[in-house]
Design goal:
Helix content: 40-55%
Distance between the termini: 92 Å
Largest sheet: 5 strands, antiparallel
Strand content: 15-25%
CATH class of the domain at 55-107: Mainly Beta
Length: 123
């Protein structure tokens, strides 16, 4: 009986199972690329672009959730001023900045909101 099982398994070609297995690994790799690698690289490029456009006077939000204004920029360090009394100046690494809002964007958004509020009052 033992001979019967070894003869039956010997008839299965091993090369035929190799093609679908390689195809399956290829599909898994492509899925990982589109789900994990590509979005992460897009996010890194976007953050690098934001940090490259950072200028003095921009309003920023840090990873800790603090809002401040950039007052000085070095190679990899930024000095950010927090609070209304203008006495709290903290040097930090550029990577700690999550969001940047340009002063002209803030003015444009405040003008849009005042136009919207005036239009809603007229109705």
């Amino acid at each position: 009986m033992l001979l019967y099982f070894t003869e039956a398994t010997a008839e299965v070609p091993t090369g035929a199972a190799l093609g679908p297995m390689i195809l399956m690994y290829g599909v898994i790799f492509v899925a990982f690329y589109f789900l994990l690698i590509r979005p992460n690289s897009k996010e890194r490029k976007q953050k690098a672009q934001i940090l490259a456009s950072l200028a003095v006077g921009d309003s920023v939000r840090t990873t800790a959730g603090f809002f401040g204004t950039v007052i000085d920029i070095n190679d990899d360090m930024v000095i950010v001023e927090f609070g209304n009394n203008k006495n709290c100046r903290i040097p930090m690494i550029k990577d700690a900045i999550v969001e940047v809002e340009k002063p002209e964007d803030a003015i444009a958004s405040s003008n849009d909101s005042t136009k919207d509020s005036k239009n809603s009052k007229k109705k």
